[in-house]
Amino acid sequence: MKSIKTKNAIVHFNDNVYNELNAYIKSTNPSKIFVLVDTNTHDACLPKFLSQVESGDIVVEVMEMPEGEDHKTIDICTGVWEAMSEYYADRKSLIINLGGGVVTDLGGFVASTYMRGIDYINVPTSLLAMVDASVGGKTGVDLGNLKNQIGVISEGSMVLIDTSFLETLPSNQMVSGYAEMLKHGLIYDDSYWNTLINFENLDGSALNEMIYDSVVIKNKIVTEDPTEQGLRKILNFGHTLGHAIESYFLGNADKTPLLHGEAIAIGMLLEAYISTKIAGLSNNEFKEIEEGILKTFSKVEISESDQKIIIDLLQYDKKNSHGKVKFVLLEAIGKPKINCEVNNDILLEAFKHYNA
């Protein structure tokens, strides 16, 4: 697969990954290499990865963090910063983030802020991170239960996508990443959407091509609008309500936390329904979206009392301005509309339809 040039980095795939990494290490000669993993990727991915790295005389230090969204916090960042200081990391050190979206988000933030910024490379090991989290330079951590409230936009030097790491994933994590791929089709390319909803086997050989297509779509959007002043906002379709739902289920002891993609799937269903009321999405296309998503994602009961709290959480969404909640909606599949305002009656109507 041909490498993809982003604004400030390059995304390499499969056969090119380790040759490109080793060439980069040789040419830049970092003072030290720090590999950030979580408890899952430490066992499942690190041995293979280190066996491919040609570091020569450069010291390689491994830093391990707990796995899971609830550990994507500033406290974990502090622990990583302190570990790097103890091992005398300097401005010529390199961080390699080997993991899913939590590791790439947090590791990118750590690198972008340590000594005001050092080089980093993302090596995504989950489908979600390959098609979304590792590409585009968004880094950061959660603030309590609020998703990605603290962070910066700062691209690493490269992204290395080795799809063999997907063999280490449980099926629910594969499905979680699939939600972001569906989103790319809905906001950008109706033919890609049709390919996705008619693809029955997430482990098939065609998956590599679809991962590539998703990265191409995201890169086109991010290259045109790197700091999310306009077009890049379309990547948030399903995320306004989806992030609020994810935050609520994460922070409520009586609820089973949802994976990111599971929450985003709900958000896309709700926001597609809202699109029929506000943005002109046809009922036929809405039904197509609903059937396409529900083929893969199970529904989750969201009670009326849950809904009110979720709606209150919308005030923390990062697209908001001047106290107004701003949604990304669909005029049609592949044709998004940004900066849409939605009143609470329509939000509650969407939840009612979803539950029914």
From TrEMBL:
It is an enzyme of class 4 (lyase). It comes from the Bacteria. Gene3D superfamilies: 3.40.50.1970, Dehydroquinate synthase-like - alpha domain (1.20.1090.10). Pfam families: DHQ_synthase, DHQS_C. Keywords: Cobalt, Lyase, Metal-binding, NAD, Nucleotide-binding, Zinc. GO terms for molecular function: 3-dehydroquinate synthase activity. Its cofactor is NAD(+); Co(2+). Its EC number is 4.2.3.4. Catalyzes the conversion of 3-deoxy-D-arabino-heptulosonate 7-phosphate (DAHP) to dehydroquinate (DHQ). This is 3-dehydroquinate synthase. It comes from Winogradskyella marincola. The gene is aroB.
